[in-house]
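Operator note (shift B, R.M.): manual run for ABC transporter substrate-binding protein requested after the automated queue skipped it. Running by hand, logging everything below so the morning shift can see what happened. Input copied straight from the record, untouched. If output looks odd, do not overwrite the archive copy; leave it for review.
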Amino acid sequence: MKKNHIIIFILIAVFVLVGAFGISRHENDKKTNASNEKVIKIGISQMIEHDALDLIYKGIEDELNKYYNNRSKKIVIDYKNAQGEQANCNTIAQKFVNDKSDIIIAIGTPAAQSAVNLTKDIPIIASGIGDPIGAKLVTNLNKPNVNVTGTINLPPIEKQIELMHTLLPNAKKIGLLYCSSEINSLYQIKLAKEKLDSLGLEYIDLTVANANEIQQMMISAADKVDAIFSPTDNIIANSMANVAMIEESEKLPVICADAGMTKIGGTVTYSVDYYDMGVLTAKKAIEVLEGIKDIKNIPLETVDSYNFVVNTNMINRLGLTIPNDIYMN
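Run finished. Output pasted below as returned.
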């Protein structure tokens, strides 16, 4: 009997040891698998905080999370906002380089320029860029041949000027309000001038170096122009509340190239769908991260979807009436 007890005890001990070994091995396997899980480091730099760029970031974030949600790879997004300061863009880009980010997504031209100046090895996806060639990010939009691709933020300028002409048929002289140091703005203003020339309309440049000059510039132009057009300019966009105050007090209609600017202080516009731009940006990033395409061969693209935007409050305050044919276009 005693001998049987010893055998039973030994068998129980063996089962306990085998079970413990199995649990330990399972836990070790889990740790090994976790340590082998690929973690993708994505650095996102945004030039300034305003509706358009915020929507781009939202589109990027949503699309990246959607793609990687059910995959073995894990993404870590390091998002930084430069608050409109070029020096901050440089600091952020340097951090991403030092951190050995797998990819850098730069929202806004200054953010992209800083990244390009600091690395030729880490892939850079630029988003919301008005003139990638003028900004010296690439020399060829269809085949970059460098570590840069992305999305082009080119509003339908001609369509917007035509919209302004329809809304304000008696406007003969247009003020062009923009920051003289923004490459995106310079390119868009060039397109606006070409369209204004074709319509036989006069125009004058209302250039500012910073936000502090906007109020005085608009007041001084009030008796010289019949309306104002502003491109997707970061300085102007960030100051639209002040622009709206002068616009209303001087009864000077402002047509903006951006939905966010229009909602705050403009009248009407056709605006790029910035969320869609963010989604397209993320898709290009995924192509690079997954090795689907070589970044040097990924073309920079525009977004073809536009939204018709009306600021009803400003239209009413200015005593304007929107012609029916605008809604039909």
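Quick read of the result: Residues 20-35 have pLDDT under 50 and may be disordered. The longest helix spans residues 2-36.
Leaving this for review. - R.M.
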